[in-house]
Design a protein that fits this description.
It is built from 5 helices and 7 strands; from the N terminus they run H-E-E-E-H-E-H-E-H-E-E-H. It is 47% helix and 19% strand.
């Protein structure tokens, strides 16, 4: 009888120990899983904002800085054009108004680049070949930047195309122009800034 009692006490201890081990393993799994989820969230946030510190454009405020690759594979930063009037034009090859305004933008850029005017055409998710083909076909003289997956444009809150943001020499947003530019609107919104 004493042997049986010792066996059952021993079995109970083993069962209690096994339960305790399972609880520890489950706790460890939850902790490790939580840490991995946190790392994944931080990685996605870091990866999506790598090199970008932009905020949605507001009149009279700076939008921050960003870096994108152009169709030649060169990295272009907004801060490279500090002190200049910069037009950021969000466009896509699938957008008829975007394509229609490009000749006017190209003409204006060529006429005013020597006055400290820069145009950065940020393409909304087309492939490099699509954007480069359009740029070549239309002899675009300004940088055409690629925004795969429209990550940057989404961060800036741009969802309508074309949308243009005009940044003055002081680095602050002067105009947010949604839709196509016309001869009159481009002259009235940009030309006064070049003289200031």
């Amino acid at each position: 009888m004493a042997v049986r009692r010792d066996v059952s006490v021993k079995q109970r201890r083993e069962r209690v120990q096994a339960r305790e081990n399972r609880r520890k393993a489950q706790t460890l799994t939850l902790v490790v899983g939580g840490v991995l989820v946190l790392i994944a969230i931080l990685w996605v946030f870091y990866d999506s904002s790598k090199g970008q510190s932009v905020v949605p454009p507001r009149m009279g405020a700076a939008i921050g800085d960003f870096s994108l690759t152009d169709i030649q594979g060169k990295s272009v930063r907004l801060s490279d054009y500090k002190g200049q009037v910069v037009l950021i034009n969000a466009w896509a090859t699938w957008c008829p108004p975007c394509k229609a305004e490009m000749p006017l933008l190209n003409q204006y850029y060529q006429a005013h680049a020597s006055q400290g005017f820069m145009l950065l055409a940020v393409n909304a998710g087309d492939t490099r070949d699509q954007a480069a083909g359009f740029a070549t076909q239309n002899a675009l003289a300004f940088p055409v930047l690629l925004d795969p997956g429209t990550k940057l444009l989404n961060q800036m809150g741009i969802h309508d195309f074309p949308t243009s943001i005009v940044i003055g020499k002081d680095g602050k947003v002067k105009t947010i122009h949604i839709g196509m530019f016309t001869n009159d609107s481009i002259e009235s919104e940009l030309t006064p800034l070049l003289g200031s």
